[in-house]
Amino acid sequence: MISGSGSGGKGLVKAQVRLKWDPAPFDRPPHHLDIVAATYSADAPHGRPVYVVHYDSRSPDGTINMGRHSQTGQGFGYVEEMTLELDRLASSFARVVVGVVIHQNTGFKTFGDLTNAGVLVVEGYRELLKDDLTQIAGSTAGTVAEFTKDASGTWEFHARVQGFDSDPVGFMAEMGSAPQL
User: Within 10 A of 76 (CB to CB), how many other CB atoms are there?
Assistant: First the structure.
């Protein structure tokens, strides 16, 4: 668990999730990955998401949005970026789960089929998580981060790299479910 620094005891204020991967070889269909964030209410922190943010949407209040999006992985370094303004989320939210999903419309792919994949979670210049996704190499989707709000209203970060075998729609529905024991 990591809480914010330099935020006057308010915990995490603003976090960014960045994603990178190498493009597919020239003679192959592109690899299309997406960062996905799901919000959960204090009444049902492991229930259905209140809303989900991905490349084609943003949160209704503008607190979670995509700053960069790639459908191919082309570019230098991290080619997708999502910003979460946790301090601006409504008080009714207690949890945000962030994940990565691989689109399967050009053929079945897992994280193990990608090269140079990675995710980076930062608060300002502070690195909260850096992972190459190899621990979920056999999966088509995976969670990477969980942000939770405690009783005092302080947002905290938890690394949560967990693989799923779902298409994008299925993953968005199950990504915040209670961990299987």
Answer: 6
Q: Which residues are CB-contacts of 103 (< 8 A; sequence separation ≥ 6)? A: 32, 33, 34, 168
Q: Tell me how far CA of residue 148 lies from CA of 93, 106, 153, in angstroms.
A: 9, 35, 9
| Tokens standing for residue 37 | 């964030």
Is residue 111 packed enough to be buried (19+ CB in 10 Å), middle (13-18) or exposed (0-12)?
Answer: buried
**What is the spatial distance between Cα 19 and Cα 100, in angstroms, rounded to a whole number?**
8
Average pLDDT along the chain, 181 residues, taken 10 residues at a time: 53 94 80 90 93 84 79 65 94 96 88 93 96 96 96 94 90 79 41
Residue 155 exposed, middle or buried by CB count within 10 Å (0-12, 13-18, 19+): buried
Both tokens of 83, joined, read: 């910003």
Q: Please, are residues 130 and 74 in contact by the beta-carbon 8 Å criterion? A: no
CB 121 within 8 A of CB 145: yes
Helix or strand run (H / E) with residue 149: strand 141-149
Backbone angles phi, psi at 18, to 5 degrees: -120, 145
3-state secondary structure of 166: coil
Q: Kindly list the distances between the CA atom of residue 164 and the CA atoms of 70, 101, 137, 158, 177, in Å, as whole numbers in the listed order.
A: 22, 9, 10, 18, 11
